[in-house]
Amino acid sequence: MDKKNDSRRRINRIQSSDYDTPVKDAPGRRQRTSKTDPNVRRRTSGTKNGNKSGKVRRMPTDAGNPASKKSTRPVSGKGSHPGKRKSRRRKKQQVIGRSIQILLIVVLAVVLFLVIRNFGDANKLNNKGLQAYESGSYEEAISYFDQALSHDGGNVDYYINKAMAQTELKLFDDASATLDAAENVASDGEDQLVYRARGILLLSKGSYQEAIDAFDTALDGKESKFSSTELDILYYKAEAQDRAGLYVDAVMTYTQIADTKASADVYMLRGLEYVKVGDSTSAESDLREAIRRDKKNYDIYQALYWALSDQGRTDEATAVLNEALDLGGNSGEALVNQGNIYVQLGDYASAQERFERALDKKNAEANLGLANMYVAQQKYSEALPYFEAYVGEVTDNASAYNDYGNCLMAMGDYEKAQQIFTAGVALNNRQMDQILSKNQISAAEYAGDWSAALEYINTYLTKYADDADAVREKTFIQTRIR
């Protein structure tokens, strides 16, 4: 029998009374330490690990040292120390904390990315809407603004842009609802833009006093040192006052503008209001100041011409037009302006020569000039082809449609005039809409189309409900239908 088995038998013959209390040494094995022979040879960690003597190697102890007793404390687990457990817990908590921080950073980055992307998409759609608006494609513009709002429903500008497109289509109730939504999301600084838009809506609708009130709310009582936006609001307010027949108020509003930012335009507009007030002296002063500031603006010369003519100052009026002619110029635009002045002076040969030269330069306005030249001479049939040529090329000039329709009315072609006025109304031009709408009704009446006339006047009254003459006209039309 080999030595290893013999050693095991010898260990098994040792009596249990010769040993101390058992202690844990390894999983599944109990070992005892001999009282009598500390060097007893037995299978120990020494023999397992290559210690040939087989002796148990004990660390020296200080049996009499009280400190050794203090260091002996109960433990749990695999020999772990409470300080080490706390350290592990802290490390675990730190790992969890860092993981949460990283997760939050990732979430914020994703949210920021989505917000930026949505903003970019919404802004692009809004820009497309503005392009469609500028080209007169208002329904297409509304579609783009709606898409922009689907990406950014809190953007006040998108609501306002949509409302303006709806206003151009005379969808006043829809526009008002859109502005209500804008007001709900607007901050304090954005309220001004909402009230400005509401004022424009009411101005287009023909509710002039309500428009003035809206513009006043937008200005919030401010009376000087206006911003560029506030100056724009004042221009709209003055227009509403003019439409309402409040000419003195309009003069005061234009004065506020001039005091903040004087320009040829504001002096011309105030001068025209002075004409309506009957203050010819102030009118002439303002119009001459406008010319001094912008000597090449033919519109101002013509405004001064009419202001002087209304006073019976014919010679002075003619002198003003001659001043304009002295500006000269050989461009298509300059030739058209010269032609228009010659028409006012009654020099039709010179006017025709200027217009034909402008036509050679491919200036479309020359066709309108020739048409109006023939109308001034009551040569209506000769004017027609030039009107046709002009509206065939320039489709958004509401004033031209009005001139064309009036020419047809003078010829007695009421049905065609009705069609032309209707086309002009469809342009939704704020400044010409009321005039065109009235002429549309009149053409239908002359054509004997009373059902259409009633339809037109009902539409007119939805926009200009304060027009007492139109209310009486509606009653007259209704009697003709019965």
From TrEMBL:
**How is this protein named in the record?**
Tetratricopeptide repeat protein
**Listed Basic and acidic residues bias regions:** 21-40
Give the residue spans that cross the bilayer: 95-116
Q: Where is this region: Disordered?
A: 1-93
Record SUPFAM superfamilies:
TPR-like
What's the short name of a Pfam family annotated to this entry? TPR_16
Check the record and name the PANTHER family matching this protein: SUPPRESSOR OF RPS4-RLD 1, TETRATRICOPEPTIDE-LIKE HELICAL DOMAIN-CONTAINING PROTEIN
Per the record's keyword annotation, is Protease included, yes or no? no
Could you tell me which residue ranges the Tetratricopeptide repeat protein 21A/21B N-terminal ARM repeat domain spans?
A: 283-417
Give the superkingdom in one word: Bacteria
Question: What are the entry keywords?
Answer: Membrane, TPR repeat, Transmembrane, Transmembrane helix
Q: Which GO terms describe its biological process?
A: negative regulation of DNA-templated transcription
The TPR repeats extend over: 122-155, 192-225, 264-297, 332-365, 398-431
> Bias regions of kind Basic residues — which residues?
81-93
